[in-house]
Predict the structure of Signal recognition particle receptor FtsY.
Amino acid sequence: MELLSLIIAIAVVAIVVVAGLVTTGARRGRAELDERRGGTDVLAPPRPAPEAPTAPAETLGAPPAPPAPTLERPESAAGRLVRLRQRLARSQGVLGRGLLALLSRDKIDEDTWEEIEDLLITADIGVGPTQELVERLRTRLRVEGADSAPVREVLREELLALVDPTMDRRLSVSRQEGRPAVVLMVGVNGTGKTTTVGKLARILVAEDRSVVLGAADTFRAAAAAQLTTWGERVGVDTVVGPEGGDPASVAFEAVRTGMEQEVDAVIVDTAGRLQNKAGLMDELGKVKRVVEKQAPVTEVLLVLDATTGQNGMIQARVFSEVVDVTGIVLTKLDGSAKGGIVVAVQRELGVPVKLVGLGEGPDDLAPFDPGTFVDALLGD
Ligand SMILES: Nc1nc2c(ncn2[C@@H]2O[C@H](COP(=O)(O)OP(=O)(O)OP(=O)(O)O)[C@@H](O)[C@H]2O)c(=O)[nH]1
């Protein structure tokens, strides 16, 4: 009996131990499963991979591009001088109308001829051309006398001959042999050089020509920004360099860009500081040499401020000794009664005035036309 009780007790203990082991194993298995499931009792579908937070539609990607700037449509070159004729007449009227009044006197004596000479000299025509004109007028009015054409007509003809309508005033701004035309704009700071580059670009754009600008005036910090703005307004690229950098390398880059873009013309603004002739020669000579490794320079336009009179003439002389000037741009003719400089500078350099500046507006630059100029001088 005692033995039976012992067997039963051992069996009970064994059952309890086995049951405990089974429970622990089951718990460990659950724990492991739970661990694999993410520590939750609930059988959940696998969690989706984490995603970038969904941004509101309007902030997706790059910020919306600003609306493309509206490009300006510059005024065509033809007829600009006619539009600006009034300004020319206002500034140069003293000369033209003054001459007309003196020559229309009943009796033209020596004093009158002297007055005529003074008027011409004051308008900066220069001594040589003044004497020439007076001689021709004297002869015609004496020889033709009462039979002569009206004084106004005689004067018009003689002034026109002095301005010389036979000079070739076309700008060389077309591609040649698969390369862009290259225009160097030279002149003393403040004459309106940078502005003229911008205005000329507008003239070319109006003629549907493609253009690249080169801001090789690295001397004046604002010049590059000023030029870039001019270009942007008409969709023209401007190549700029570091402030104080080498003007020749900017000019080189500009022409390289122009070659790549296959444009019609590259216009390069130069610094042209007139500190001394040797320095100027070095700078402009280098710019030209470097540019011509890629394409020939087709125009060297000298910008002169008409209000500076004889000073402008001195500048013209120095520049023409340093580079082969092919054309003159006379700026600020609207603010000067000294339109005679057209004649003087052409005589001095033997190159034509090709463009005239008649105001600060973006389209106030016009191809020079001798007939319209003389007509404006004489008034209607
Ligand atoms: N009235 C008038 N002003 C002009 C004309 N051309 C240029 N100007 C003005 O002259 C000033 C000088 O022009 P810029 O183009 O900055 O002169 P710049 O020769 O390039 O001078 P730097 O950049 O210092 O070399 C500006 O205020 C122009 O608006 C013109 O034909 N008539």
In short: Residues 181-325 form a domain with the Rossmann fold fold (CATH 3.40.50.300). The longest strand covers residues 297-305.
